[in-house]
Amino acid sequence: MAKATNITWHEAKVKKEDRRKLNGHGSAILWFTGLSGSGKSTLSVAVEHELHKRGIRTYILDGDNIRHGLNKNLGFSPEDRKENIRRIGEVSKLFVDAGIMVLTAFISPYQADRDMVRELVEGREFVEIYVKCPLEVCENRDPKGLYKKARSGEIKNFTGIDAPYEAPECPELVVDTNQQPLEDSVKQVIQYLEENDYIEKQPVRL
Ligand SMILES: Nc1ncnc2c1ncn2[C@@H]1O[C@H](COP(=O)(O)OS(=O)(=O)O)[C@@H](OP(=O)(O)O)[C@H]1O
Ligand SMILES: Nc1ncnc2c1ncn2[C@@H]1O[C@H](COP(=O)(O)OP(=O)(O)O)[C@@H](O)[C@H]1O
């Protein structure tokens, strides 16, 4: 709910389309969602690297990092997760307006919260990428030892253990990190972006 009244929107002379033209590419949100340990951070970093090599302006917003600053006052209750995603949605929208390809790596466990972000931006600007991986595999990877802590009760409301994860109903892309190596997942995302005209196809180097 908006609290402020008597506020007026100011239009800038330079528009999103002007910035995109200057950059020479489009802008969108690549929204990676999935369980802890599914590979959101690993994949978004690798995809960003590939985009950067192609001369595309990018920025990553990662759950762990954002919770150190902008969202340090939020925990993991359903309400706080919702507010976390709402703020990230708004920040991502600013990046899209700035003409930048923004990659987000948040568990974002609720479909309604992800849909809220989709509604915030224009039609094709939200690309939902489900980083799919069975809970057992994520738990086995346990890169930060958090599942162990969640199982022992040291961490409460841990996604997949005692807090829900709602798999995307209709994502633009499903990347199965248990079925393919990282390089194939990167190719899958880049191919999607090329085929859907978010980025230019790169000529095959012989
Ligand atoms: N209770 C609980 N549940 C889930 N995750 C937890 C929790 N406590 C701490 N962490 C760590 O916080 C990271 C998830 O933050 P997010 O902002 O992505 O979460 S959410 O989208 O608001 O659900 C998550 O990062 P990833 O492992 O990269 O997903 C964890 O490192
Ligand atoms: N095919 C794969 N794709 C991505 N990550 C993988 C894959 N196989 C194993 N991993 C490992 O799984 C872990 C995923 O951790 P991370 O990227 O932090 O996940 P998340 O950000 O979703 O919590 C990393 O240690 C990564 O090396």
Automatic annotation (TrEMBL):
Database matches in InterPro entries: APS (IPR002891), APS_kinase_dom (IPR059117), P-loop_NTPase (IPR027417)
Gene3D superfamilies registered for this protein in UniProt: P-loop containing nucleotide triphosphate hydrolases
Record-annotated active site: S108 (phosphoserine intermediate)
GO MF term list: adenylylsulfate kinase activity; ATP binding
Residues in APS kinase domain copies: 27-176
Key words, A-Z: ATP-binding, Kinase, Nucleotide-binding, Phosphoprotein, Transferase
Metabolic or biological pathway, per its Swiss-Prot or TrEMBL entry: Sulfur metabolism; hydrogen sulfide biosynthesis; sulfite from sulfate: step 2/3
UniProt cross-references to CDD domains, sorted A to Z: APSK
Residues that hold ATP according to the record: G34, L35, S36, G37, S38, G39, K40, S41
Domain of life per record: Bacteria
Entry EC no(s): 2.7.1.25
PANTHER family named in the record: BIFUNCTIONAL 3'-PHOSPHOADENOSINE 5'-PHOSPHOSULFATE SYNTHASE, PAPS SYNTHETASE, ISOFORM D
Family, per entry: Belongs to the APS kinase family.
Protein name, UniProt field: Adenylyl-sulfate kinase
Organism: Weizmannia acidilactici
